[in-house]
Specification:
The protein folds into 3 domains: about 5-15 and about 35-125, Thrombin, subunit H; about 145-240, Trypsin-like serine proteases (Thrombin, subunit H); about 250-330, Dodecin subunit-like. It has helices at about 5-10, 25-35, 225-230, 275-290; strands spanning about 15, 25, 35-45, 50-60, 65-70, 85-90, 100, 105-110, 115, 145-150, 155-165, 165-170, 170-175, 175-180, 190-195, 200-205, 215-220, 240, 245, 250-265, 295-305, 310-325, 330. The chain is mainly beta. It has 4 helices and 23 strands. InterPro entries: Peptidase_S1_PA, Peptidase_S1C. One of its GO terms (molecular function) is serine-type endopeptidase activity.
Amino acid sequence: MSSMNQLSTALMLVVMPLGTAYAIEDSCLFENNRDATTRIQYSCVLANGDGNCESSGSGFIVSESGLVITNDHVIRPAGNVTVESEEIYVKTGSLGAGSVRATVVARDKVNDIALLQLPPRDYGESWQSVAIGTAVPTPVGDSLMALGFAGRELAMIPNGMKTAELAEVDGVYRPWWQTNLALNEGNSGGPVFGSNGTVIGISVAYKRSSQLISYVIPIYYAKPFLEQAGAQAVVYSSCATYPECRNKIHGIERYAVDMTVDKLGEWQAKKSSRPEFCNAYLSKLQSQFPKSEFTYLQSSQHTAMNGRKREHIYYCKFQRLEGPIYKLARSEFCLQ
């Protein structure tokens, strides 16, 4: 009996193992993560002549050096058996891609997570990796998407959401999210994306007796493996589509108040100066309109004889701006 069949039987009564920007561009997410999503084929020879085992699932590359995260049950036979030898082969992006042999780096049986190592690529090229999300809370109702090899080819699982904080499996609560992602066998170990286009979870199982009840391991539980891989978490991926807003960072489009203000003084015998006159006028404006900004534009002075008296007159002009209206644009700052 294959290990996947054994595992399915073991969880048949409750679950069957599986083989978040304000919006995500679906085609962008698929294309950008295609070559970082893997199909994993596991086979083993059991000791004592107990036969062979075989299973398959999905995974995702988390480092340029080719470290892959998947579910531990994808690369382990079910039950209390002894493995004499095992092989793990991985394809990236498509079933038509060439297979490479992977090795197990680390296992976390409790959290059902494993870390694999792919061999170096030809010509020193780097492996493409996914964008790992930051460890921020994911509220119930947040949108989710997934990638995986439920069929023979890589497929997207769209239009899902987190529906509950915990999962009850065989009468035991696990720290998995319950979701309505349409997961199937073969999706085990595949990446689950949040509304910012980053990986925030790992597909792990679905409930066989119910429609659209599936389970996801929060990426937090893979933290030791991510640290080992040197994966740096990011807030947004390049596939995140941000909402529109007016934000200071976008620059100023116009002002609610944009006008010129000026003052012509009266003829006076006492001589002053244009700077003195303009500064006094500016102080008065700033007191009268404390929320406005003022920019000097122009000033002048004239002198004339009034009989035997020499008199002076001064003029000053400012631009008054108030109530900046910022440019309408899409950016990550609209999420704040």
